[in-house]
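Interim report, section 4.2 (structural modelling).
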Amino acid sequence: RKEVEQDPGPFNVPEGATVAFNCTYSNSASQSFFWYRQDCRKEPKLLMSVYSSGNEDGRFTAQLNRASQYISLLIRDSKLSDSATYLCAVAGGSGGYNKLIFGAGTRLAVHP
Amino acid sequence: DGGITQSPKYLFRKEGQNVTLSCEQNLNHDAMYWYRQDPGQGLRLIYYSQIVNDFQKGDIAEGYSVSREKKESFPLTVTSAQKNPTAFYLCASSIGLAGGPGNEQYFGPGTRLTVT
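Predicted structure of the assembly:
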């Protein structure tokens, strides 16, 4: 089993929809969690950090569920420009506190 | 402008040749990282450095080498011993140890290496 797992998608949603992705992690010692956005053939860009129960930034909300070992990313009022791959990253797992372990990403396609 | 630069953007090499990828940052970050990304896969850590003149192997270090002679620079050499070198290589940096508050990792634009 991979240490960080994501549904690869793609999630195809209309503009204005609300969409949620989950990311599960296997190591209960994991301490910090991150969501990155990656456009096609570009570098990942940090979207949100989660150190306690959750975080919110405009239309984006991240929630951490330590008991079930997953973090979610909720996007409200989806825009065409939200189309991208969303990568989940976890720190403090088997790699140690100073290493991030990435999931393979979830693709989101927002259509008119 | 502050940020992380990687050059070149695209690189083509013949099998059996060593190649060095450049990574420079002017963010005054102590920690720097090299990742590899293959299609449909997550990023995998090759090497990381927490401080000048020190670096540690990541999960897939075989066939790669690095140096950290200056705080701003962390070049990666892909040697001929690397079995499948064709990939998207990403350099990242953080203020200190990744994972802690305020120590988020930020990425450079990447180098696409194709070896034939």
